[in-house]
Amino acid sequence: MIRAYKFLMRPTVGQAITLGEMLRDHCGLYNGALQERRDAYRHASKTSIKYGQQSAQLKEIRAFAPERHGRWSFSSQQATLRRLDKAFAAFFRRVKSGDTPGHPRFRGVNWFDTVDFPKDGDGCRWDSTSHDPVTRVRFQGVGHVKVNQHRPVVGKVKTVSVKREGRKWFVVLTAEQAQPEPLPATGSVAGIDMGIANFLADSNGELVPNPRHGRKAAAKLEAAQQALSRFPRVRRDKRTANHRRAVERVAALHRKVRRQRLDHAHKTALDLVRQHDFIAHEDLKIRNMVKAPAPKTDPETPGSFLPNGAEAKAGLNRSISDAGWGVFLTILTSKAESAGREVIAVDPRNTSRTCPECGHVDKENRPTQEKFHCVSCGHQAHADTVGALNVLRAGLVRRKAPPA
Prior knowledge:
Layout: E1 2-10, H1 13-43, H2 51-56, H3 58-64, H4 66-70, H5 74-97, E2 114-117, E3 124-126, E4 134-139, E5 143-148, E6 156-165, E7 168-176, E8 189-194, E9 198-202, E10 207-209, H6 213-216, H7 218-229, H8 241-275, E11 278-282, H9 286-289, E12 296-297, E13 305-306, H10 310-323, H11 325-339, E14 342-346, E15 371-373, E16 380-382, H12 383-400
Parallel strand pairs: 8-11, 11-14
Antiparallel strand pairs: 1-5, 1-7, 2-6, 3-4, 4-5, 6-7, 8-9, 9-10, 12-13, 15-16
């Protein structure tokens, strides 16, 4: 299996400047390749250029501009061109399937924050012999950079990436390792129901509160956004130091919320994996759940619209995004695979409206957000716990069903 590791780098001032130049030059290569594809499609009878043709030009590009492109790894530049090729492949796949295409766009210097090295030892070298808290990684054109290795890397390092987040630099490794030993069996099974008031409820009646990291940081984010909005819109090279600090303040607050959300997701998923052998969850289509409601035209007044609940839906969408269901379910699936646990997604329809005692389905069974009261048999319980019980039962049925 392949596992990723992310470590904080401690570059010197000179190395940080050189790393920034490496990102800038790779960004220029990406934008230049994108412009070539656009020009070829527009002016050469809609001729498309592939990755192989652009990769063959790298030797000439490096010879023409050795100070910009010649000093960096050839393999990392090929990886940048592959990155563009994947963007175009995804674009044409969306066009073919009828989705919103989203044409590949030019990248600004601050938007291009990652350089990939496809193979350890080709343009980069990870010091795999060191198990000290501080080790080093070498990049062509940069030198040996200190790395805060907070945990050992298990397995053979396959790829290395450099990533910039604000003013910090990280190295991301992927290592190939043997399948780990599964955790001891507990004999426990559970279903989980994702929510807004509570982050999740399990079929055993336990509730995990929703931390609402985004809502807690909303006041600081609003103040930082207002401070940033006071600066006039000018060219990037004309922006003042105060403007740059305002931008960094907003970005730092968003990064903090993201880290808090990830930390909560990792800890919650780890607790579930350690306690249960089998976990069932709802197969949520989160992208569809956070869509804005369609406008309602007023048939009596042309050009005007009727109320469609957009404001309330926007608040619900913010709460769903703040909970981070998609990130949590991805982490849960990954941890369960490593621990030898089983995770199954089930259809979420009517899981909160079905009585677990008599099986009666009715929207009146859930009079409030938290209360479940069956109108047929009178069964009462927490609505999220009822949903988790129904999810578990559907998961067990699907688990025992013969393959199609």
